[in-house]
Amino acid sequence: MLVAVLTAAGCAAQQQASQQNETGQGVTDTTIRIGGVLTKTSASGYSTKDAEIGAKARFERANAEGGVHGRKIEFLGAEDDGQDAAKGDAAAKKLVQKDQVFALVPVHAPNFGGAAFLEQQGVPWFGWATGPQWCGTKTGFGYNGCLAPKQGAGSQTWWGRQMADLLGGSAGKSVYVQTSDSSGSKYGGTTISQSFTAAGFTLAGVNSGLPAAAPPPDWLPYVNKIMTSDDGGPPDVVVSVIAGTKFNVGLYAALKRAGYQGVLTDATSYDVAILKDQASAQALDGVIAAPMFEPFESTAPEIAKLKQDVEKVAPGTQLTQHLAIGYWAADIFLDMLNRTGKDLTRQKFLATGNGSYLYENAGFGRIEYPKDHDEPNGCGALVKLEGGAFQVAKSMKCFDNVPLK
C-alpha cells in the first residue's frame, strides 16, 4: 500500500510538473498562481495592506464567473516588505522561486526593491507605479502608467486641467507648489507644476525646502512664502506634494490661520481615516484631493461593482485608496490575461501587454502599453472634503500628456 501511495503521489507530481512545463511557471490547466508585495507595516505607520483586499475581491469575482479561459486564480495573498527595498527584493524572489507564481499582483510598495529581479526573470508585476523602478521596464505594469517620466517623455496634464475646469478656467489664476526635500517629492513638484502651467495657470513659486523626516515645529516661514508668492499676495491655488496627512494638516491649518482663502489641493487627502479625527477633518475641510481612480462616491456602474465585490470577500471593509489600487491592478491583469488566450506562458502574456495594448475603464480611465511604461496614463479625478464628507468634484477624465521639460 505504501508503494502504491508513493507511486500515485509521484504520478500526480509528474502530471502537475508536466502541465506547468507545457503552459509555464505558475500555470496549470485549471489554475494560475498569483502573489503580491505590499508595505503592510512600516516604522512610520504607513501601510498599503488594503490593496490585498482589493485584489482578492476582483480575483474572487473572476473565479465566480468561471475563471479566465477555464483557469481559476489561485491568490496566495501578499508579502510584506516593511518599506525596505532589500525585503521587497527577497519577497519577490520567494514568490517566484519558492512559491512558483506566474505574476506578482498587486505590488504596492514605495521602496519596492524587486524590480530588477522581476525584469531579469521576465515575470509580470502589476500595481501602483509610484517610483522610477516601474519606468522603462517590459514587465512592470502600473495601473496608472509611469509617474516618473524622463525629460522629453510624456508628463501628465490632467490635474491642472481638471482644476481649471472646476474653477471655471485658469486665466489670471496662479498656483504655488509646496514639496518636501525628498527626491520623490521634488520630482512630483516638477511634473505637477508643469501640469498646472500646461492648463494655463501662472506658476507663483515652488518650495522644496520642507524637511521630509517630520513636520516642522513652526509652519510660519513656509506660510509667509506662500502668502506673498503672487506679486506680494497669496496664490489662487496651493498644491501640496507632501507624503503624509500630518504634514498637510499642519500646513493647511497654518494657512487658514493666516487668512488664506484660495484653493488647497493634494493627492493624499482622500482618506476615510481623516474623518475620524475632528482636528484633521477641520484642517482639511474644503481641500480638493486628486485620486487617479474614480471616487467611491461616484454613481458609475464600475464603482457599484467594486463595492459589491469587496463586500462579498470582506463585509464592512472601509473603502480606501490602497484598496482601489489593488482592485484596478488586478482588473488590468485579468483583462490582459483574457486577451492572451488559452495558450498561456509568460512570454505570450508579455507579448500581449507590450503589443499595442489599450484598455479603457471608467474606474481608472485608460492604460496603453508599451507607451505607459515611460509615461503616466494621463487620467484622474477630483474629490472635495466638505462638512465631514467626501463628494465627487470631477469624475475620472483622461487628457493628453505633454513632453516633460
UniProtKB/TrEMBL annotation:
Pfam families: Peripla_BP_6 (PF13458)
Residue span(s) of domain Leucine-binding protein: 31-388
Domain of life: Bacteria
Keyword presence, Signal: yes
InterPro entries: Leu-bd, Peripla_BP_I
Protein name as catalogued: Leucine-binding protein domain-containing protein
Natural source organism: Nonomuraea monospora
Key words of the record: Signal
Entries under SUPFAM superfamilies matching the protein: Periplasmic binding protein-like I (SSF53822)
Annotated family: Belongs to the leucine-binding protein family.
